[in-house]
Amino acid sequence: MEMQNITAVPRAIYSPSAVPAEQFVDGIRRLSEGLITKQKIYDYLVAYEIRPEDLERYKMWLEDRHTRSKIFRNDMIEVMLICWPIGAVTPLHTHNGQLGWMTMIEGKLKVENYSKSHCNRPENQQVVGMDCLAGATQIEMEHLGNELAVPGGPLNTVDKTQTIHRIRNLAEWNERAVSMHVYSRPIDSCVVFDLDSQRCYRRDLKYDNE
Ligand SMILES: [Fe+2]
Question: What separation in Å is there between the alpha carbon of 3 and the centre of ligand 1?
Fold first, then answer.
């Protein structure tokens, strides 16, 4: 059973105040003008959320994959809504060395955290402006554990030490999921790993609503 892999099942511990999208975005913009830390954005996201009626316009559903809808973006930070159909799963991927925060709006998601223990192109990480050129043909990953993300639960984050994961909306849950993601800086591409074929490559990330 998949569920047995999840070490800690979080309770709802936060109840953010629902505010209009414009107000929420103004707060994010203000924060982006100062020093951005993992804790500062975390504190903001457990205090405020976009009111449900304002999120509707960002929801976009496809049957076979998740969609990414831009809510706000400047040079330092981006906010998007992600809609996960039943059974949606991402490949194993990095976050380009950036910070990321995920809050659950509806449903739940399983986050599988990994760490790269070895690859045969470590020199490809020596590049400016991105985490790695990718291109390895031998990759070893350590599965560190899983997290269950639920509305009101602890935020799932990625940072400079934990940057590789896979996200699943398990088919057995039989429920769509919606999550809001904040990244700083914005992430335009990431490294995707295919462990079966022992390959990794950069993949461009696009919004579905523009
Ligand atoms: Fe991710």
Answer: 20
Residue 187 pLDDT greater than 70, yes or no: yes
Structure tokens at 210: 């523009």
The full DSSP string for 4-47 is GGB---PPP---PEEE-HHHHHHHHHHHHTS---HHHHHHHHHH
Q: Separation of 163 CA from ligand 1 center, angstroms?
A: 8
Q: Compute CA distances 166 → 112, 114, 127, 147, 183, whole Å.
A: 5, 8, 24, 11, 16
Residue 205 Cα to ligand 1 middle (Å): 11
**Which whole number is the average pLDDT over 136-151?**
97
Please write the tens of the pLDDT for every residue from 106-117.
999 999 999 999
What are the tens digits of pLDDT across the range 148-181?
A: 999 999 999 999 999 999 999 999 999 999 999 9
Q: Is the pTM of this model over 0.90?
A: yes
DSSP class of 122: G
| CA 108 to centroid of ligand 1, rounded, Å | 15
Ligand 1 center to 41 CA (angstroms): 17
Ligand 1 centre to CA of 200 (Å) is 15
Q: Is the pLDDT of residue 1 over 50?
A: no
Distances (CA, A) of 181 to 10, 77, 84, 104, 197: 19, 10, 13, 9, 29
> How many angstroms separate the alpha carbon of residue 136 from the centre of ligand 1?
20
Does position 7 have pLDDT exceeding 70, yes or no?
A: no
